[in-house]
Design a protein that fits this description.
The chain is mostly beta strands. The chain has one helix at 28-31, and strands spanning 4-7, 10-12, 18-24, 33-39, 45-51, 58-60, 68-73, 78-83, 92-102, 105-113, 117-121. β7 and β8 (78-83) form a beta hairpin. The model has no long low-confidence stretch (mean pLDDT 95).
């Protein structure tokens, strides 16, 4: 069973908004922080944001601070990434992953990756 399943990707316009959702199975959210990691074409993976499992503290990459907001709803077993003021450089496959939320970003536990959802920002 897939532990994490993303949805909500698609085509967004520059300056527009998209919201990504991550559905977690079982007790994943009870024990793990959740992070969003993206991979643009021809580039390596980049941590975007994460949220802790305990106090709800968050971390954002400098490139998305002030534009993206991560949130979680433990009752619904969901984590969201609200992306506003989209830029073409936000184009990437976005992955939801579970692990730790460190001061340097998400640290993913082995086997706790979603399948990814494509976000394309273009006019």
């Amino acid at each position: 069973q897939q532990k994490l399943v993303e949805s909500g990707g698609g085509l967004g316009q520059p300056g527009g908004s998209l919201r990504l959702s991550c559905a977690a199975s079982g007790s994943t959210l009870d024990y793990y922080a959740i992070g969003w990691i993206r991979q643009a074409p021809g580039k390596g993976r980049e941590g975007v944001s994460c949220i802790s499992s305990t106090d709800g503290s968050t971390w954002y990459a400098d490139s998305v601070k002030g534009r993206f907001t991560i949130s979680r709803d433990n009752a619904k077993k969901m984590v969201y990434l609200q992306m506003n003021n989209l830029k073409p450089e936000d184009t990437a496959v976005y992955y939801c992953a579970a692990g730790l939320c460190s001061e340097k970003g998400p640290v993913v536990a082995e086997g706790y990756w979603g399948q990814g959802t494509q976000v394309t920002v273009s006019s």
